[in-house]
């Protein structure tokens, strides 16, 4: 019986595992933390009075199936530290809580260890002062998570020790920045913060809201993000990147160039939310050496030879930024590629 080793128990690895298990293939799912779910398990629903297509509702069914399916053997607290291939089969060495464990006779490997947020990097600082009025979008996500499903608890409870009457969002923190080795667009931030702003608009109708964009990037199933849509929602937009951030008179001040007026201007806010770009995972360099993969200039992974020849596949954001729906879709495609190859072998 074919045995697939999936490294990474986030939504990408779990989607691959579920698809393979449905086809009757045995899966070993290795997760370095104590539970599956990855970063996405801490995300919160961003629906308002309507679904805003954040696609978080697609996630729970995948993780639940992983927990139920006996064809998927989940190995929590298993950090893969070494691997080799001999006679067409892989052996994986794992560091666990108690000891090193070895897993043999694995036919194929799927790498799905995801990404890091910019705030998790040593260099991932906003390059400005610390202030309770400045938070990462990941911190906002924690408040959305506590909000639970919008059908149960629609209003957002801001877990802050002050009550903001205004909020501004700044895009592209840690993205589109050669200095941070991230000249690429992270693809998800525009739609992500737009959804958060809509939740704020519903929960706090009088709050002044605005977003600083370089340009608007639509991703996945978000099809209604536009400058006109922002106007309709009563969300101001600034089509530029801020030049300077200061604090004054109990406010955060953002200096920027008003391109329509052709002069410097100041925007003031009570709360400033910084987006977090998607950065390559810590393990990528190790995987490139163990499994003969190429590190891109940005630090993500790509194949040197196709998975059909190397028996090593990439799923999810390990190969570049992507939103939830795109990650699930591409991960299923990876699984189906393996399934198709197995059928060919049987024939």
Assembly category: single chain
SSE string, helices as H and strands as E = EHEHEEEEEEEHEHEHEEEEEEHEEHEH
Share in β-strands: 25-35%
- CATH classification, class level of the largest domain: Alpha Beta
Total beta strands:
20
| Terminal-residue CA separation | 15 Å
- Enumerate the spans where pLDDT stays under 50 for 5 or more consecutive residues: none
Helix- and strand-based class? alpha/beta
Overall outline: elongated
Provide the gyration radius in Å.
22 Å
Number of domains: 2
Helix content: 25-40%
Biggest sheet descriptor: 5 strands, parallel
CATH architectural designation of the largest domain: 3-Layer(bba) Sandwich
| Integer average pLDDT | 87
Descriptive key words:
single chain; 347 residues; FAD/NAD(P)-binding domain; 5-stranded parallel beta sheet; 26% helix
Task: Describe how the helices and strands are arranged.
Elements (H helix, E strand, L loop, with lengths): L2 E5 L3 H12 L3 E5 L28 H10 L3 E4 L3 E8 L2 E7 L4 E7 L1 E4 L3 E3 L16 E3 H11 L18 E5 L18 H15 L4 E6 L13 H7 L1 E5 L4 E5 L2 E8 L4 E7 L1 E4 L3 E3 L3 H7 L2 E3 L5 E3 L3 H4 L1 E3 L9 H23 L1
Parallel strand pairs: 1-2, 1-7, 2-3, 7-20, 9-16, 10-11, 10-16, 11-12
Antiparallel strand pairs: 4-5, 5-6, 8-17, 13-14, 14-15, 18-19
Helix pairs in contact: 1-2, 1-8
């Amino acid at each position: 019986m074919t045995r697939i080793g999936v490294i990474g128990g986030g939504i990408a690895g779990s989607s691959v595992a579920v698809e393979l298990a449905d086809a009757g293939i045995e899966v070993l799912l290795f997760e370095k933390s104590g539970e599956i779910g990855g970063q996405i398990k801490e995300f919160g629903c961003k629906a308002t009075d309507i679904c805003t297509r954040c696609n978080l509702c697609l996630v729970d069914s995948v993780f639940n199936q992983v927990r139920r399916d006996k064809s998927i053997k989940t190995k929590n607290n298993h950090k893969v530290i070494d691997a080799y291939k001999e006679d067409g089969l892989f052996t994986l060495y794992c560091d666990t809580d108690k000891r090193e464990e070895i897993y043999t006779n694995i036919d194929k490997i799927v790498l799905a260890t995801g990404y890091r947020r910019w705030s998790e990097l040593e260099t991932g600082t906003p390059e400005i002062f610390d202030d309770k009025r400045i938070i990462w979008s990941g911190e906002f996500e924690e408040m959305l998570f506590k909000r639970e499903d919008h059908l149960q608890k629609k209003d957002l409870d801001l877990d802050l020790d002050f009550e903001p009457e205004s909020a501004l969002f700044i895009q592209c923190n840690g993205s589109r920045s050669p200095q941070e080795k991230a000249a690429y667009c992270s693809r998800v931030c525009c739609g992500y913060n737009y959804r958060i702003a809509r939740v704020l608009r519903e929960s706090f109708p009088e709050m002044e809201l605005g977003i600083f964009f370089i340009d608007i990037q639509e991703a996945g199933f978000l099809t209604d993000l536009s400058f006109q849509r922002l106007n309709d929602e009563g969300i101001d937009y600034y089509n530029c990147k801020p030049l300077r951030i200061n604090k004054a008179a109990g406010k955060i001040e953002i200096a920027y160039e008003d391109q329509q007026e052709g002069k410097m201007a100041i925007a003031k806010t009570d709360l400033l939310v910084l987006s977090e770009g998607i950065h390559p995972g810590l393990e990528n360099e190790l995987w490139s050496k163990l499994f003969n993969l190429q590190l891109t200039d940005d630090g993500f992974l790509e194949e040197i030879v196709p998975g059909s020849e190397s028996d090593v596949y990439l799923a999810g954001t390990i190969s570049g930024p992507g939103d939830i729906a795109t990650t699930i879709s591409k991960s299923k495609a990876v699984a189906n590629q393996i399934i198709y190859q197995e059928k060919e072998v049987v024939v």
